[in-house]
Input
Amino acid sequence: MTEREFNTCVDEHADGVYRFILKNLQHEEDARDIVQSAFEKMWINRDKVVSATSKSYLFTVAYHQMIDHIRKNSRIELKESFAEDAKMERRENLNLKKELEKALQQLTPLQKSLILLKDYEGYSYEEIGKITSLNSSQVKVYLHRARLQLKAYVGKVENII
Amino acid sequence: MITKQNYESWFLLYADNELSASEQELVLNFVSLHPELKTEFDVIQQVKLIPEEVTMPNKSSLKLDELKMLETIYRFEPDQNIIYPNKQELYRKTPVFSFPLMGRWAVAASIVLLVGLFWWIQQQESIEPMTVKEIATVSESPLIPAKESVNQELSNVDQPIAKSLISRVRTTKKIEETSRSINQSLMVVQEDNLISDEVQVGLTGSIDRIQGQSNFTKEVLDAATDRMKAEPIQAVAATSSPNMEALLRASLPEENEGSLFKGLIRKISRKVLHENDDGDAKVIQVANFHIHVKN
Output
């Protein structure tokens, strides 16, 4: 990978990776740090990375760094989800998009990642499997379970409405 | 084939866009055939996140040229003129002999002990050999055996003079000097083939003192004195069995410097056998040798 290719990669994929991480973490600074270190890692391994695989390489690196980050900050994460629950108590009449965003935050980091990689990036089960170190049938099962959870959550909201 | 049992999975695959065009057609046909499942199908399709337009802030910072530019602009050249003032204090030196704190004390103690030991040996070696006259002084040593033990010993003696002298000597701490003196006397006697007046006076003086202090039987002592005068060589020589003479010689300070260690061993062994409290009578056992006496 040349310097030019690397810079092109930044233009094409930085936003996508950042969005993927930001949606997961809900924290801009942390998301930026992760994206930055993912790109640094790609530059270090530029001999092994070619432009065609650079996107999935970036997502893979960023995903694993994000999981590490979540593990390190699991206590804070827990507090945040409690706060989220508290907010749920006084649920308001929100539109479906916002409800979906909220529902997404109820999912585990893996479920969240699977949904985001599928819906945002349009990756196939196989590609998602490569990024998240799962096989495609595991991706399918986990992803369906996650989506049914979203459906259940949104269904409840609709009932309240 | 889509059935009422597995339709959910198909709906999900449809939402995930994992179906081929013909399979998608199958799903849509199934929904139209089962309008009661239409709502469920719609909900699953709705539970999809629509990609938001998210832009990474300051994205250009990721680019290499920017990073390189920053590196060149904000670059600090090392100042070679700054040197550490005292490198000596940073060097690590391995000492030639290094003892831990406890070890140092042990070494010091060992040295003191060794010096003390050699000084003591020197002190012991430097004591002048006694003259025959001094035998009398020796016999006045406070370490006098009880009357009974001396008497008993004397009564068993075949050669009373020499034996009584030896008994006396055994009671003293200064056996070495005494033995040496006796030995010297012996030498004189053997050389001149007669006992010198000095020896006789010394021996008689000793006997007198022994008698005075120990209540020796007069007869025994007189007989001994007579015999000594009559047959000085035989009287003494009879007591000087080869073993005894060897032992007496062994107790002499040796000229050889190398015998210092031997002397040390000897002294230690004497010390070990030094005192032996035997009831009321205090018997001092010095050195571990035996004198054979003919009955």
About this structure: Chain B has a mean pLDDT of 67.
